[in-house]
Amino acid sequence: MSSSFDVIILNAGMANASLTAELAPQRKVLLLEVEDEAGRHATGRSAAMFFESYGNATVCALTRASRAFLEHPPAGFADAPLMTPRAAMFVADAQGLPRLEAMLSAPGAAPTLRRLTPAAAIERVPILRPEWLAGAALDESGCDTDVAAIHQGYLRSARRAGAQLVLGARETMLAHEAGCWVVRSRVGEFGAPVLVNSTGAWADAGSRVGPECRRSACNPSAAPRSRYPRPRGTSGAGRS
Ligand SMILES: Cc1cc2nc3c(=O)[nH]c(=O)nc-3n(C[C@H](O)[C@H](O)[C@H](O)COP(=O)(O)OP(=O)(O)OC[C@H]3O[C@@H](n4cnc5c(N)ncnc54)[C@H](O)[C@@H]3O)c2cc1C
User: Fold this and answer.
1) At a CB cut-off of 8 Å and minimum separation 6, what does 131 contact?
2) To test ligand 1's pocket by mutation, which of 46, 165, 172, 209 has the most ligand atoms within 8 angstroms of CB?
3) Per-residue pLDDT, 108
4) What is the model's pLDDT at position 207?
5) Which numbered atom of ligand 1 lies nearest the CA of 13?
6) Quick one: 89 exposed, middle or buried, by C-beta within 10 A (0-12, 13-18, 19+)?
């Protein structure tokens, strides 16, 4: 085995750059990325919007939990503000109206989301067609985020805390041998008792590269999940 770690994390996109930065002060962490640069896929394509009213209840809870950090990041995390205020309007035609109503009345709906009459929506956005528009909602608490600054801030924090970032790890093969996860790739062989495989939209493909792997493989038998507390405002529902 070329290198041993406490945790190997596959994917240097946004999700795992932040996870690596959180774990690195307490664990020896390897962040392994298949591309030659970090953040090329979903992270590099984000529309960069931050809205507490957007997404399912879990996503909204995570968004709410992120606000304080993004508004007041630790000193040295980034050179410029990570968030810039921006309102968002949600619009629906007659067919989409039930979904808009469900969004407005959901138990965890953001208190900042409010109904607009079609006339009020058109007053704000005159290009909307009155014969199409059946309903609208406005959230003025949203922001544009500086995705690149957040991503780089997390990668910098992870490196400062001792995490190792390895790029270009193509031809990844995963195996579970003698109680340890082994990752073999073009750039070397790495082992750890804990593997985090959350390769975004590639998670299913990633889970097929080795015989012993499961989707989103965080091996509970190798490391009790209780070691890493669940983020505030989330539940275990939907974990796979
Ligand atoms: C068009 C678009 C618009 C979006 N707009 C917004 C928005 O406005 N606001 C918002 O909050 N979110 C938005 N999102 C969602 C947000 O971008 C994603 O939730 C986030 O970037 C996901 O990060 P990730 O790290 O999970 O995935 P990714 O950034 O896709 O990272 C996955 C990484 O895993 C790597 N990988 C794959 N296989 C392996 C392997 N075997 N070994 C190692 N690495 C591997 C890939 O190369 C990639 O770098 C948008 C997404 C898209 C696509």
Assistant:
1) none
2) 46
3) 76
4) 53
5) 25
6) middle
Distance 206 CA to ligand 1 centre (A): 14
Pocket test of ligand 1: the residue of 10, 11, 50, 172 to mutate, having most ligand atoms within 8 Å of its CB, is 11
Q: How high is the pLDDT of residue 121?
A: 98
Walk me through the domains of the chain, giving residue ranges and CATH numbers.
Answer: 3-45+148-227 (3.50.50.60), 49-145 (no CATH)
Q: For a substitution probing ligand 1, which of 8, 19, 31, 41 has the most ligand atoms within 8 Å of its CB?
A: 41
pTM score of the predicted model: 0.82
Residue-wise pLDDT for 25-58, tens only, equals: 999 999 999 999 999 899 999 999 999 888 888 8
Name the β-bridge partners of 43: none
| Range list of H helices, the chain | 14-23, 42-45, 57-71, 97-105, 118-124, 147-160, 203-207
> Tens of pLDDT along 110-145?
888 999 999 999 999 999 999 999 999 999 999 999
Q: 45: CA distance to ligand 1 center in Å? A: 8
Closest C-alpha residue for ligand 1 atom 25: 13
